[in-house]
Write a sequence for this structure.
């Protein structure tokens, strides 16, 4: 079929809606020989150039048919009155087909509008399909069709089928088909002018008792599209009573469409629709507790799962819905009903052999758990504990989609006060998920570990993450490094372990260790003069840069720490000031100018402290005074002339160790993590 054609595979993407139109066109082509031949020619094209050439010929032919010239008088609306109904439909179908294939169609609008104005259903349906695809609400010609669309929406005439006369017995069709055509086109076209002109009519159709179920469904979805294009189009205070009436409809298809609309409206004006919570709970209880559902809406014996999901999503917008109510103590009836519904969903959802039923039931179950997450601490503790146990089962199954949802939802649930202990019971399972073949599952496992980590399990989790970092994909390494660094700092009971952890990060994934991470190491070491942390860090980094091969980030950290605190280890064997200079300077020719700038400052401090370092440092400064890098050149020139320009006391004061850094309430790493999560959301 059309999806198998070479150019659709290579260069175009056809949406589901376009595919539906293509199916309609293919059906029409069996009735129109010229259209059928045209489609066959395009399908048989051996190259894109051949296809384009055939389309250009056809466009020229159609353009000439629409505007033949030679004294042919066009109608007032610009259409060609000499075209028969068959010809006009055939040419418009060709234009639609060409448009769906991705080619520009910038003419024929008058003929499209002529079809829309037709009294014949066959012509009107072709016109509305073309109107939806070929025109936009901002096109100037749309002003000429607003009255026609409004009539089709409101006047409810009988529409002729074929060429016969309409009658109540035979050839007539109810206006609901025409109303549906107009509503679908209006939703697809949108446009501010159309929205302002039509939204009141759409609301009236939706709430009218005379509208059929099919029309109500289309009207609800059309209104949803209009409100997405133009937010705050509808006043919630005024429209909420109408929604109450709509929610009493017995047709589940209407209820499903109305809930789609309601979720969209409530997300814009949440407070205005809070009064509908009892109605929503009643519908949900009928489906879940009574299993009262029309047979055609039973999906593998599950009553209308899509409607249940939409109802639960609406309730998630109101996290305070059960706060302040005496649950189970004779409080509000709808609150007790709601607790019973959620409890039934959680504890009576069974695993099914049918994949389709299992997917539907699990979708409802996850929305129920999301509702518990939304309630937070106002939710009864036993429900939160039950939800955590259910999620613990889900993260152990083989199905990756279920594991993904389980990990993601558990991470949200664990953030509620008092729930993290329940999540920590599943720590071993989460660590296994960190090695999953699916990258998205690994990301969710990492998020969950980040949430459940505390002083009790930090060392084990961090060590496991560091060990996994060796084999982790490049796509997740940066996030892992950042979160490991935050956890190591936040929950370190021994800062020496923190320093060791960061150095491991640098040695394993140095390219993914951003500047804020090693800056934070420097800040922590500088701000903790008590104990032996500074000496430990200096000795550890001295050994780390003693080898010829080490990451440049390690050189940067070592240069700073040894320059500041190298004097603490200078008396140790093999760690004198001269040795410190040599282990740092062996990397001089392998690092960039930013690292050299840090090394230069360290050399100046070493030369100030140790007499034997001055003849080693002076040639480096002299040679680098002519460096092409301005920062390196300036530092060398200033440090070299410092002793001549200032007294020894002043030099000593200038080169003493840095004062403690400002202790901010939130570290730069946490701010960076928030930025990263914002970019990925």
């Amino acid at each position: 079929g059309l999806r198998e054609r070479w150019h659709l595979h290579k260069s175009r993407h056809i949406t589901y809606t376009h595919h539906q139109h293509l199916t309609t066109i293919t059906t029409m082509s069996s009735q129109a020989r010229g259209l059928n031949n045209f489609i066959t020619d395009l399908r048989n094209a051996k190259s894109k150039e051949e296809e384009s050439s055939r389309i250009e010929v056809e466009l020229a032919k159609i353009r000439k048919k629409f505007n033949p010239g030679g004294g042919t008088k066009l109608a007032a609306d610009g259409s060609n009155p000499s075209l028969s109904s068959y010809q006009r439909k055939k040419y418009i179908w060709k234009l639609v087909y060409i448009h769906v294939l991705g080619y520009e169609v910038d003419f024929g609008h008058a003929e499209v509008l002529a079809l829309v104005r037709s009294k014949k259903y066959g012509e009107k349906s072709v016109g509305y399909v073309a109107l939806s695809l070929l025109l936009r609400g901002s096109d100037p010609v749309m002003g000429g069709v607003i009255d026609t669309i409004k009539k089709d929406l409101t006047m409810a005439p009988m529409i002729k089928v074929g060429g016969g006369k309409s009658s109540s017995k035979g050839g007539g069709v109810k206006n609901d088909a025409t109303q549906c055509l107009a509503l679908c086109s209006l939703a697809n076209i949108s446009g501010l002018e159309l929205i302002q002109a039509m939204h009141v009519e759409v609301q009236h159709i939706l709430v009218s008792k005379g509208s059929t179920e099919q029309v109500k469904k289309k009207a609800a979805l059309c209104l949803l599209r209009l409100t997405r294009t133009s937010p705050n189009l509808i006043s919630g205070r005024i429209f909420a009573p109408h929604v109450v009436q709509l929610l009493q409809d017995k047709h589940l298809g209407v209820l499903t469409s109305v809930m789609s609309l309601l979720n969209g409206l409530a997300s814009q004006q949440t407070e205005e629709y809070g009064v509908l919570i009892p109605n929503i709970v009643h519908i949900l209880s009928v489906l879940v507790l009574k299993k009262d559902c029309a047979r055609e809406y039973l999906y593998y014996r599950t009553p209308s799962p899509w409607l249940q999901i939409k109802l639960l999503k609406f309730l998630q917008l109101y996290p305070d819905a059960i706060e302040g109510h005496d649950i189970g103590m004779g409080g509000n009836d709808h609150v007790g009903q709601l607790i019973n519904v959620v409890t039934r969903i959680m504890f009576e959802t069974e695993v099914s052999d049918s994949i389709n039923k299992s997917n539907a039931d699990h979708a409802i179950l996850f929305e129920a758990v999301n509702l518990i997450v939304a309630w937070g601490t106002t939710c009864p503790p036993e429900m939160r504990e039950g939800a955590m146990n259910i999620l613990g089962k889900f993260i152990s199954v083989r199905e990756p989609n279920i594991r993904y949802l389980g990990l993601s939802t558990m991470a949200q649930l664990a953030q509620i006060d008092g729930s993290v202990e329940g999540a920590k019971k599943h720590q071993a399972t989460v660590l296994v998920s960190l090695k999953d073949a699916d990258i998205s599952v690994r990301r969710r496992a990492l998020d969950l570990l980040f949430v459940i980590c505390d002083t009790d399990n930090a060392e084990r989790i961090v060590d496991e993450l560091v060990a996994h970092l060796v084999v982790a994909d490049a796509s997740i390494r940066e996030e892992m490094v950042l979160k490991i660094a935050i956890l190591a700092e936040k929950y370190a009971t021994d800062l020496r372990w923190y320093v060791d952890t960061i150095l491991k990060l640098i040695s394993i994934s140095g390219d993914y260790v951003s500047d804020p991470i090693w800056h934070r190491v420097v800040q922590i070491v500088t701000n903790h003069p008590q104990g032996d942390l500074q000496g430990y860090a200096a000795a550890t980094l001295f050994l780390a840069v003693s080898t010829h091969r080490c990451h440049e980030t390690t050189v940067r950290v070592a240069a700073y720490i040894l320059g500041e605190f190298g004097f603490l280890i200078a008396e140790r064997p093999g760690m004198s000031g001269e040795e410190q200079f040599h282990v740092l300077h062996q990397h001089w020719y392998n690092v960039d100018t930013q690292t050299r700038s840090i090394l230069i400052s360290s050399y100046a401090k070493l030369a100030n402290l140790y007499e034997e370092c001055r003849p080693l440092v002076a040639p480096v400064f002299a040679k680098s005074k002519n460096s092409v890098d301005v920062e390196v050149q300036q530092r060398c020139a200033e440090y070299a002339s410092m002793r001549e320009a200032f007294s020894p006391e002043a030099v000593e004061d200038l080169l003493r160790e840095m004062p403690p850094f400002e202790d901010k309430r939130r570290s730069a790493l946490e701010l960076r993590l928030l930025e990263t999560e914002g970019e990925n959301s």
